[in-house]
Amino acid sequence: MRKRFALTGTLIGLVMVLFVSACGSSSGGSGSGSSNSVLPLGLEGPLTGNRADIGKAMVQAAQMAVDVINKNGGVDGHQVKLYTQDDAGDPVDAVPAVHTLINVDNVVAIVGPISLTEAGILPSVDAANIPNLMWGGGSQFDAITDPHFFRMSPSDTEQAEAMVYYAYKQGWTKIALAFGAGSGSQSLVAPIQAAAKHLGMTITTNVALTPGLSNYSSQVTDVYNTHPQAVLGQFNNTTAGIFFGEIKQQGDLSTPFIGDNIFYTNTWFNAVGKTVASGPVYMTNSSTTGGQGAATMLSLMKQYYGYTTPPNGFEYTYDGVMAWAIGADEAGTWKWPAVEQGIVKATTPTSQTTLCTSYPSCYSLIKQHKPVKFEGSASSVTFDKYHNVYGPFSVLRFNADGSTQTVVTYTAQEIQAAFAG
Amino acid sequence: MVYFLLDLAVLGSITAIMLVGLNLQYGVTGLINFTFYTFVAVGAYMTAVTMMGKPAAVYATGPLAEQYILQWSLPWPIALFIGGISAAILGLFVVLVAVRRLRSDYLAIVTVAVGFIVYNVINNAVQLFDGANGLFDIPQIANLATEPYSLYLILVSVILLAVCMWVSHRIYHSPAGRVLRVIREDTIVARTFGKNVQLFQIIVFVISSFMAGISGGLLVFYVGAWSPAAFLPTESFLLIAALIIGGNGNHWGALIGSFVILEGLAELTRLLPNSISASAVGPIRAILIGVGLILFLRFRPQGILPESLLKPYKPRRIPRQAAAVPVPNANVAGNVPNIAGTAAVDPAAEEAQ
Amino acid sequence: MLTALFEGIGFGLVAAAVIALGAVGLSLQLSVTNYINFAYGDLMALGAYFVYAINGGLHVNFFVAGLLGAIATAIVFVLLNIFVLRPFVRSGARVITLLVVTIGISFIVQNLVILIWGTGAYQYSVQVGNAFHIGPFVFTPGDLIIILISGGLLFGLQAFLQYTKLGKALRATSNNPDLAMSSGINTDLVVNITWAISGFFAAIAGVALAIEENNLRPLEGFNELLIIFSAIILGGIGRQTGALLGALVIGIATSIAAMVLPPAYNAVIAFAILILFLLVRPQGIFAGREVAD
Q1: Which domain holds residue C150?
Q2: Mean pLDDT across the stretch B145-162?
Q3: Which residues of chain A neighbour B116 with C-beta distances below 8 Å?
Q4: What is the CATH number of the domain that holds C226?
Q5: Is residue C287 part of a domain?
Q6: C122 falls within a domain
Q7: In terms of CA atoms, which chain A residue is nearest residue C222?
Q8: ipTM metric
Q9: Number of domains in chain C
Q10: Chain segment A262-319, per-residue pLDDT in tens
Q11: Cβ-nearest to C226 among B105, B113, B187
């Protein structure tokens, strides 16, 4: 009997201790914004749950970016402190997460989350009047007019057009579609169908792959029995591993496969193995002009973490932090609405701007009052009027050792022209 | 800090409604349901589609439009009620299918299978509830700023929670409640007393599913969005763990389970210093809950607030007859104790606890 | 059309081999202990990760690593029984309580795997080879090896149960534990051996699954678990041959159904069949023991 009370008491005591220590550890001053010298930056992402690998990449990217910023003068003279909150990829958890960032940590900007949870946090971001630099393909954000919203990754519509355009240019006009049944993948199907129709291509079949199945052999047969010239698809790494394994077993690896930026990660490479990855598998990825922005980030990433290819979500998060920091430098403040104008100004190319790709160079140019155009690692970070990035697209292929080669690059104008009218 | 407490209060009250419902099913009647959260999800979806109206213009562009059925714009109390009813209908279906002659592990498997089927159908039949993208931009039920809105929701949730607890209390302390507890312990005994076991199980399951449904609706009012990502199997497991630790069979235990275990621990870990590796926090928390559950089941299965605290059995004193000669009573039949175990019998004598 | 049908049957055979390994292991344990181990799927995954760690990390030959991993998993199962499950059984816990405990174990194991190995997907270094035709079927060498190993293990288990003293003691205990105890059989030992065998099969099933899927990830076991349940219930609780046949039916049926129906509804159909079966003939194709609740 006494033992039971002791156990109960201990458990309740444990809860109390956690509570007290939590109250003690939550920093953040009164009122919104920073205390004297430190700017709190918020990062929200799926650190647990199904997309936890994305969350981890986001945290690593943000930590690296903040470290680079702090070592090179901080933002407008202030050091940056990163606060991360987990939303588990679950809209229900996203709300307390964003509330904690805004009200407890008093962040001045939020990087992330992904499209899955973005809609839930927008109202809070609006109410707090801070910029929100997220990433994710969700086409529901294509025409969003909320000025707080910035998207660092190309919309699925653009991705779809790039994929179809590449197939078209290669003369593969009979294509099959194999997309995961999850939202991130299915949202590509309709734009692809529209794009293919526009160019007069034929879609032989459209197969949806339910994530979480252990066997896709029948789906693979469905796709390849229609003898397409190329297959377009996007699905998560797990499905990719199984799906491509089935293709390999059925001997269809010679048919070209066109994926998108989701495939351009080392986790995907590991999931499907080097035989598949270095076969005729192509990935469209938003790119940078000349690749300088990417090169800067890649060398930093190699230095900090030793990766050769960025894990999924890494580059967009890095771009998000950088865009915010440089925008704040440009505006001379982190406060709203000036910071929004700063972000736009520092990323819009004009005839007077100088291209800069690394934080130290951008910041020093700004301090010399020279107009800059920051170019990111995953895209040129040029925003359209809806604060969505748009820009050139490259088609990449993996080599057997995990590095990538660029097959061709299309400018944004070229792609837009192909689908205009 | 205040906002953290506000979030805690809203989510805690809503989760408490879920746990009161789960307690009715599992704690009082012994019906094992490993997919309770699916009913919550059904309630959430149905409330949303009867309240959202047409999708917002900015999300309705072309072939990528947010699609969902109904698209009605009913006032939120009616939408909430419809959410509850929908979950109750699913509950009715499940319990009719599963409750006959099946051993308890079969019932568990069936509930898991149903959860899986519902999840898959919603994910794939995009025209139902917008598939994996889910529903978003669900309007608030009152045009208030963030903090006053949270307070408003707390008010609504607490009122509904009080109603559910009152229902649970009334059921528990009624003769029907006694029957339910007998069913929990041994269905054969209940049948021996002539009780229609299946009818009781069906009614309880439907009522508790209704509670699940309205809690789902309330969640949707709070979050403004809902998608399959929000109702994975782990959620149901967490509910069971919270109930068992809080006090299985006791609807006040449900409160403890909700505020302390689920919302308290989960949200508290948000305040942990950032130095702890972020991606380890989630699994560690989950492992702690799992270990806590097993420890509680082993050493304190009645939970923090045991059922005995509800004092269901109040001994009533029988007034002693003073006369030696019994007064002839015309209504002799009425004096014979009714073996069928209704309220006419002295509970103290009936239950040799 | 007919070729597609045969190919479907071929895929189904491989799937059935994997399901059978899992189903038989679980069925054996269920028949002896009389409650379902909901953690079985996640423990399958754990076994597969053990093999990955031994094979990839310590660079041991794959088949040797498989054996070692399976033994390690068997030990884990026995430890779980001794330290977690048996105390509950001894204190007279109800079946429902044990189910919840096993779900708790499932939760813990899943998250342990995530904590140690992360949520990413891994691959074994071994290659399955290229597909070739055997008659109307299409197999890879890996598929055939899986079928062979599966068949061999199942056959060996049957022989063990039929012809060895320990095997007979096991069957006796599953039939009537009290009688077995009073006949002098050390039921505790028998139960532990059952868990060990269950664990061994679980690990092999987990590895086979990871090879068939070309993918090793934390949730692979849990997803497979429902399919294994279907196989066991179809075949009848308490009968290993039933579990085997159930696995065959489920494996081939889902494979063929996937050709006709939108593949997304594949698993849904499987579980709908399960529910139907539970309603109409819960004792399975072969009537096993119907145990009182």
Answers
A1: 2-280
A2: 89
A3: none
A4: 1.10.3470
A5: no
A6: yes
A7: A212
A8: 0.82
A9: 1
A10: 787 777 887 788 888 888 888 888 776 667 888 889 899 999 988 887 888 898 999 9
A11: B113
